[in-house]
Amino acid sequence: MTSLVEEAQVPSYNTRLIFYPLLLLASSIWILYRWQQKSRLHTLAEKLPGPPVIPFVGNALLVLKKNPTQLVEFALKFAEQFGNVIRIWLGSNLIVFLTDPNDVEVILNSNVHIDKSTEYKFFKPWLGEGLLISTGDKWRSHRKMIAPTFHINILKSFVSVFNQNSKNVVDKMKGEMGKVFDVHDYMSGVTVDILLETAMGITRKTQDESGFDYAMAVMKMCDIIHQRQYKLWLRFDALFNRTSFFEQQKKLLSTIHGLTTKVIKNKKETYLENKSKGFIPPTLEELTKSTDDNVLANNDKSLSEDVFKGYRDDLDFNDENDIGEKKRLAFLDLMIESAQNGTNNISDEEIKEEVDTIMFEGHDTTAAGSSFVLCLLGVHKDIQARVYDELYEIFGDSDRPATFADTLRMKYLERVILESLRMYPPVPIIARKLNRDVKIATNNYVLPAGCTVVVGTLKMHRNPQYYKNPNVFNPDNFLPENTSSRHYYSYIPFSAGPRSCVGRKYAILKLKVLLSTVLRNYKVNSDVTEAEFQLQADIILKRTDGFRLQIEPRQRVPSTVA
Ligand code: HEM
């Protein structure tokens, strides 16, 4: 009996030993939770529309186990349900989604809300403190230094690089004739080649590390970063560093950084060697100086200059003169030159970060952008015929490369590109961290400091208030009469305001040369309808089903004859 009592007493003693600390822990967690509920972040967040919240987890379960395609469908449905302002909690992180251009303008047009959200920190091992993620004075001074390297005079000197590489990809695509193939592979390859030449000044012939390996490494890195953004546990370095992703990331970064570091080292050595021999390249100021004789007439300017004029950024289209082929300098050369001549105070490490950033930002975005255009033209044959007729008017049946002046005449192609970027914006969301409370236009809601604001470009671009049939591909949405009275912030594929895309003009120019070259050589066809495109929520918008395309040789005659 005694032993029984003793036996009975032992568990009761043990239970108390566990029960009281547990009770204490649970009460502390509850008090912490209630205290959090009363915090300013929670008080203001409670006023915003959004789904019910589960303590501690927030709304994280909503995205759990959803694949990237389901995530896009889910986000679009969610926006239908809750409207233009939606609040969700991922654990203790408050995220507010905005899709009203008036609200978006408040954030993007500000010189204060320029900090990127914490999600961008996953780029850090790759891009360091490059332009995309840096903030404060560093971002300001580097933006001031880098924006002029995208001056139209510099871009004009790249037209021959765009032409040569476009011609190369047309030749490579010949092998796909008659088959269904993924055109993104080709667009990605040619984009990397063009970037290597225009950003780093190296061609396939001069590089000993394959551009394809580099492109693959960039794509895989994007995938890892994307997983970290929506898989809650991967957000914590301590957990991430124990997964196989971490090891993969290390290998990929060694491919990516290996190339950029080597190129910078070689370039700097060449610069110093040339300098010692008295060869000094032209400065950025010399290259971007305008001459009155060469200023383009207003009606010669490209359409997108009007579309984007409300952005209030620092990319000036006004002065145009031709600096000529011989003076072509890659962005890297310009940065090395300005660091060496003392115009800019930038270290080798910082130059590497900026080159990596340009290589990342300039690559996947334009590869996806051009692939969407080709697939859309494969679906909308009437629109493709109009694009070709315009090209025929410019080039006839000749095979000559495009000039900068030709690109200004590609007005319909430009509308097609702009419309494709509306329906399928390569950067489907933009995120900012708020360091101050902000009052937005919708219901005078106040978004609290500390929250992340996500601008849902994909959703905003399909708002029936601004586009008559928002889900119909219609390049006429960009006829001047339709764009002139539209809210500037209802169309932001390149973001807008002080942190807008620095490569916007480069991208439009390159897309025109590349796409016109492909379309002058091939008729394109899609074996699926647009409704069957499966969109993938990624850092860059893509298709899960691949960018399926078929090509056939183009008869160089107007569509009415063909
Ligand atoms: C169709 C092509 C492109 C699209 C749709 C696009 C879109 C964007 C967007 C939306 C942003 C803002 C991102 C954010 O705030 O999170 C951005 C930033 C940026 N883009 Fe692009 N981009 C394109 C092409 C390019 C190209 C070709 C380059 C360079 C060669 C480039 C370089 C940059 C850089 C450096 C930034 C950071 C700017 C800053 O924060 O000051 N982009 N881009």
TrEMBL record:
Q: Which UniProt keywords apply?
A: Heme, Iron, Membrane, Metal-binding, Monooxygenase, Oxidoreductase, Transmembrane, Transmembrane helix
UniProt keyword annotation of Transmembrane present: yes
In the record, what terms sit under GO molecular function?
A: heme binding; iron ion binding; monooxygenase activity; oxidoreductase activity, acting on paired donors, with incorporation or reduction of molecular oxygen
Q: Which residues of this UniProt protein bind heme?
A: C501
InterPro entries under this entry? Cyt_P450 (IPR001128), Cyt_P450_CS (IPR017972), Cyt_P450_E_grp-I (IPR002401), Cyt_P450_sf (IPR036396), Cytochrome_P450_Monoox (IPR050196)
Cofactors, names only: heme
The answer on whether this UniProt entry bears the keyword Oxidoreductase reads: yes
Signal sequence range:
none
- Spans through the membrane: 17-33
Q: Into which family does the record put it? A: Belongs to the cytochrome P450 family.
Write the protein's name. Answer: Cytochrome P450
Q: Which organism is it from?
A: Chrysodeixis includens
Query: Which lineage?
Result: Eukaryota, Metazoa, Ecdysozoa, Arthropoda, Hexapoda
